[in-house]
Amino acid sequence: LAKTTQPISMDSYEGQEVNITCSHNNIATNDYITWYQQFPSQGPRFIIQGYKTKVTNEVASLFIPADRKSSTLSLPRVSLSDTAVYYCLVGDHGGGYNKLIFGAGTRLAVHP
Amino acid sequence: GAGVSQSPRYKVAKRGQDVALRCDPISGHVSLFWYQQALGQGPEFLTYFQNEAQLDKSGLPSDRFFAERPEGSVSTLKIQRTQQEDSAVYLCASSLGLGQGGNQPQHFGDGTRLSIL
Questions:
Q1: For A40, nearest residue in chain B (alpha carbons)
Q2: Which of A101, A18, A60, A80 is nearest to B102 (CA)?
Q3: Helix, strand or coil for residue A7?
Q4: Which of B68, B83, B62, B84 is nearest to B34 (CA)?
């Protein structure tokens, strides 16, 4: 299983760009990198997924270097509503399905 | 509904009682997952269904935990003879089906918060 390491917490202010970096040194060739967001009293919500280089959607960007041993989730111009826990996951494809292995995540606090 | 629905949202039970937690996945989703989330921790995998077949139950903590999905849609997680350490949020997720690599996002419900007194 590919283990991930990410900061326990981060603080930011409204309007700033936030970058959360995740390390996954043992990522397997076929593994994708996926980020989820979780608000209190809600289930995790899929944000973005990538395999290599850069992926961008309406919510975030994901940067993955060539060696794929780390990845960076970039949230542009955060607002108070972006305060949440962000999880970086690398897929476990045993049995042909993606059993998600969550770590403790990064608690992002956005301040006014 | 458009999303994964779980009921009840909150459940309080006395130690030793049996509980049943329900999950209604997104219509047409083949894959269904149950996770357990302790306070301040990330979700932990419990079990996986592909349609009605339970293909992985490696995360179930003990034989007191039992899950079923008899018709390949609604799923029930049952905990027998509950204990205080069973207190947690139980999350259900569904995804469209088998995909290549990890490109099948899972859609989560908001969970059932179980408290054992």
A1: B110
A2: A101
A3: coil
A4: B68
- Mapping DSSP to helix (H, G, I), strand (E, B) and coil, where does residue A81 land? helix
What value does the mean pLDDT take over residues A29-33?
A: 86
Where is B61: in which H helix or E strand? none
B48 contacts on A by Cβ (under 8 Å): 95, 97, 99
Cα angle: A88, vertex A94, A99; to 5 degrees = 40
Q: Say whether A48 sits in a helix, a strand or coil.
A: strand
B109 vs A43: CB contact, 8 Å cut-off?
Answer: yes
CA–CA distance, A84 with A20 (Å, rounded to integer): 12
How do strand A53-56 and strand B10-13 relate by DSSP bridges? unpaired
Share of chain A above pLDDT 90, in %: 72
| CA distances in angstroms from A98 to A65, A90, B102, B112, listed in the order given | 22, 9, 6, 23
